[in-house]
Amino acid sequence: MTRTTPPTPIGVAVSTVIFRLRRDSDDARIELPLVRRTRDPHEGHWALPGGWVDPAENVDATASRTLAETTGLAPSYLEQLYAFGDVGRSPGRVVSIVYWALVREDVTAATEQHNVAWFDATDLPDLAFDHNHIVDYALWRLRNKVGYSRIAHGFLPDRFTLAELREVYEAILGRRLDPANFRRQVEGSGTLIPTDDFRTGSHRPARLYRYNQDVELADRGPLPQ
Amino acid sequence: MTRTTPPTPIGVAVSTVIFRLRRDSDDARIELPLVRRTRDPHEGHWALPGGWVDPAENVDATASRTLAETTGLAPSYLEQLYAFGDVGRSPGRVVSIVYWALVREDVTAATEQHNVAWFDATDLPDLAFDHNHIVDYALWRLRNKVGYSRIAHGFLPDRFTLAELREVYEAILGRRLDPANFRRQVEGSGTLIPTDDFRTGSHRPARLYRYNQDVELADRGPLPQ
């Protein structure tokens, strides 16, 4: 009720779960970057990138800044995920406002920094703090959201083949999808626009598509974009 | 990155947007309780119920506690909405972790407390801080969520008629729905179970339904229930 002074200071931090798609020869998977901690608590453990909220900085700006500082990345999608505020999740009392971000394959080359490494999102080591739990929640949100928004686009360049789009869905959902059914569903959704160009290479030429930009990547409602 | 000490203290508060359904003779609307502030900043303005996070208390628990203290309510649904953390939203730097809650009609009688009043959610006065913006966002989330979860149930008692359920949807969406189409859609969804009982009164007897409890009110994923 009262808005005088808070009882005792609580630390306010931001962490970001950053997902990218990693393609192998015949497979794709979701990866995320982690930072190795160089001091206690949890020295030597891997943790989500993040940092303290600067008192002169909006929390959204802290998310973008710490993401750029620790990984060099500018995401194609950045959204607040959840504020984790349980007692005991950190030695001092810390509330972490967690964001999640998607980055496109073509920008991930710039991310090789000291103490930063990319991990398979579904096969992580024991992370610092409650970060395993946070990643689980972010993966759940990603899987959910892919069903009702064009969030998969956040992993792809501007133009892509249907096979590449299907690969994104398969990596997120963790299962194979029937190519013919998938084509029918996305063509029926009205969210894709075929271009006149084709991807050529070792396979049969495949038409390139782009997303209909009139459809928002994900509806954020009245929140600032 | 560092987890040593935060730069300067930031206040961490919780606010809650509590929605209930208010029925008039031939209409229903969404209402929420506000608390009149008895001190600066914004003395005399109406504000969302809430309070500071106690350092020894989980943030979720702060939401439940402040909700009970200020309104006497125990909600049928309580979920974290968003953490609002812009600089300048309060004279001191305050991050507000906002929850939203639904209460059933049958429990709202207990809420008449000093300095608390219920307002039409779509016709609010000028609230303290950024609380008008927060309510707008909560209403947007409610309208969105009613499309893909059984959140409307949070406003209703255990058993209800289809007309009562339609009234909830109409109040949330702010428009009339065709009764025959509505009946077809909910009966086809498999989320309702007809009972053998009927509501009698001035109208033709109407069958009472209940929600299929095998379907979660809203999927919260791996977050604690």
CATH T-level fold name of the largest domain in chain A: Nucleoside Triphosphate Pyrophosphohydrolase
Portion of residues in helices of chain A? 10-25%
Largest sheet features of chain A = 7 strands, mixed
User: Can you tell me the CATH architecture of the largest domain in chain A?
Assistant: Alpha-Beta Complex
Low-confidence stretches of chain A: none
Query: How many discrete domains of chain A?
Result: 2
Separate helix tally of chain A: 4
Terminal-residue CA separation of chain A: 30 Å
Oligomer: homodimer
Mean pLDDT of chain A: 86
| CATH-assigned homologous superfamily of the largest domain in chain A | Nucleoside Triphosphate Pyrophosphohydrolase
Report the sheet-strand fraction of chain A.
Answer: 25-35%
Element order, helices and strands of chain A?
Answer: EEEEHEEEHHHEE
Q: Biggest interface between protein chains, with counts per chain?
A: A-B, 56 and 56 residues
CATH C-level name of the largest domain in chain A = Alpha Beta
Q: Rg of chain A from C-alpha positions?
A: 19 Å
β-strand number of chain A: 9
Textual characterization of the structure:
Two copies of one chain form a homodimer. Chain A has 225 residues and is an alpha+beta fold. Chain A folds into two domains: 11-145, Nucleoside Triphosphate Pyrophosphohydrolase; 151-211, Winged helix-like DNA-binding domain superfamily/Winged helix DNA-binding domain (Arc Repressor Mutant, subunit A, Orthogonal Bundle), CATH 1.10.10.10. Chain A starts with 10 loop residues before the first strand and ends in a 14-residue tail after the last strand. The longest helix of chain A is centred in the middle third of the chain and has 15 residues, at 131-145. Helices cover 23% and strands 28% of the residues of chain A. In chain A, the strands form two sheets. In chain A, strands 1, 2, 3, 4, 5, 6 and 7 form a seven-stranded mixed sheet that branches. A two-stranded antiparallel ribbon of chain A has the order 8-9. In chain A, a hairpin with a 4-residue loop joins strand 1 (11-23) and strand 2. The first copy, chain A, has helices spanning 59-71, 131-145, 162-173, 179-189, and strands at 11-23, 28-36, 46-47, 50-52, 77-84, 94-102, 116-120, 192-199, 206-211. The first copy, chain A, is elongated.
